[in-house]
Amino acid sequence: KHEILPPGEEMAERPRWQERQQLARLCDLVADSLLPHLESEPLATRRPQLTREEERRILVALSRVNKAIRGWDDDEVDDGEQGCASEQIVSCSEEAHSCCLPPDHHFDDGFSCLANIISIVVGLLHLCSDYIKHSAGNILMAISNSLMKFEAVWIQFVELVWAAIHTVSTCAHNHSTINATKDSVGCSSAAESISHDTTTKSTSITSFIAVLKLRCVNTSRQIMTCLFRVLHIILKLLKLNDSEMKDDFICLSIHHIQKLHWDPGYQLNAGKVVSIVTDDRHSLSKDAAQFGIVSGSLLQLFCSLFEQSDTEDTDRRDIFVKLADAIPRLATFLQEQQDIPKSLSQYSKHKILMLMIRLKPHIQQNCSHIVCLLKLLRGHFQSPLHEPMFQHSTKLENCLEGSPFLLSGVSLGELQDKSTRHLQRQAMYLFLSCSIVLACSGDDSRLKCSCKRDQCCHKGQGCTDNCNYFGLSEISVWFQRCCLDKILDSKSSTDIVLCFLQLYMEEDDMLFIILLQLLDAPLISLAIDKMETKWTSELIGAKLFSIVFDPVHIFHQWLSLLHYDHLVLVDYLISKDVGVHCAQYLLRCLRLVSGCWDAFVDDSVYEAQIQKFNCKRQRTLKNINSFTGSSMGGTKLGSSHDKENKSKKQLFLSAKVCLLSLKRTLEDLHKKDLFPYNPKPLLKSLSRFEELCAQY
Length: 696
Description:
It comes from Aegilops tauschii subsp. strangulata. The protein is mainly alpha-helical.
């Protein structure tokens, strides 16, 4: 019997009974179809292993449930039909519907339906069948889609999925570190922490955890992998549909990720856990792989929360900065994952580097966060960061990459693994980006710094000087270790630039962000000149880096690697992925060329700078112990890579033809309205370049 409400209140009441009706339908469908498969045996004798026939029956039931839920979304009932149905199904407290929950575990306001649905579906995830896990995850995604029109209920659904993750996480931790009898205490204590600042009461979370434990016998971390996958796909769908609830999901996920266990003895150290496991069916490699998959799934979700397009979103910056404290935990995360397979280790490193790259724009206003990133790179990414770049020059030009003929021409030992090169590109970009930010931090009044209490890595008096010196010293040590010995061995500076560019030419998106970053290389030399004289000898590597990676010289070498083909530049400019960055780089380079015309026309200016610095360095290195064994005799730095084949003016003439051809092509495309955006700023810069060429 329903009370007659005024028109305004009736409109507000209708969505509420619609929510309860939808929850009741889902609850009945899931409970009737799936619950019998969980309660077919007593709890004490329930086992995760299935016979082939049992697996087939469960998969058929899951398929029917998934199809039914998706059918509701395709065939929505109208308001009149809903009004009739509301007298039959109102809420879980009415006689028309009753949740199949254990005694003393009923909730108010329809929450029991959500608790019942999720506990049943998650309970199926503990079964030893990858097919069942996949199908159950698809049902959770279908339920999410069906509840998305009811925002409050959908948020509770997401919170309960995270509550299930915390429950499995905490219980698995207790099984690994404590006696199994203490496991219930740890599971119930999780409710208080995960319900803080959420819309769900702590008592409701506690009851949900109790129901989940009754239905989920084996708290394997594979359940976490499945749930992370579900959340990741939900986020992808929210972004695809540009849903307004995307921000709610991101905030909620960040809140729960912060509360996940990061204890190195818990989910990060596979070796310790394996030594405690008494089940002989799980080998070391299988258990280590499980840890790698769980961590990889979490990192995949983590990175999806920080899209590249979010780097300029200042509204979310405060939310993202909250995760800066998780960066030191990532160091432990890497350190403890020593037993997982190499492929999973490479994937985890890739995702962590991607996460730090996406997080950096939001945290770089505080120097202490940038210092933390550099320490993380120095401590845990030594291998990709200091991998020799010169292996890239040994590549056959007349053979497609990946061709079997390449393997016959070059031995496997000489070929660098693609994933290793990708990690190297990521690590080097992040390292140079962070170091340059610190090195030039003295000129940016917006930067905050709270790292002066960390005296172990700074030598300056003030906090700003500390950060300046730390950034410069990191560049100096890195460049001396990676490249300076090559120069001392008569490798020209142009060789270094070419090898560096060749490393990044394999990935267009990484290429332009590193090219844009290297435009700030001269600022390093200026920062060193402002420092006290007693420190300059320690920063010789940073000084030489600033000279070797001269932006005008890099621009020349980049065009030469493109074989001065202006159509390649056009392809870059119209690319959806790198077009904006390419346009930014060309605009800044053309502006730089206008101010450094002599250096662009005559590349010997670059060579003279190298030789001039080399003379000073020879005098300085006499008093530096680390270089006493180096021989400088016969070294001629700065000789061009193609000196024997091309004159210095030929470099300029080739670049001139390329850029003027680019100008004519852009003008033609713009007149025909075929260029995807307004190229007038770029055409203006190219016109100025043409004027300078005419005067030369």
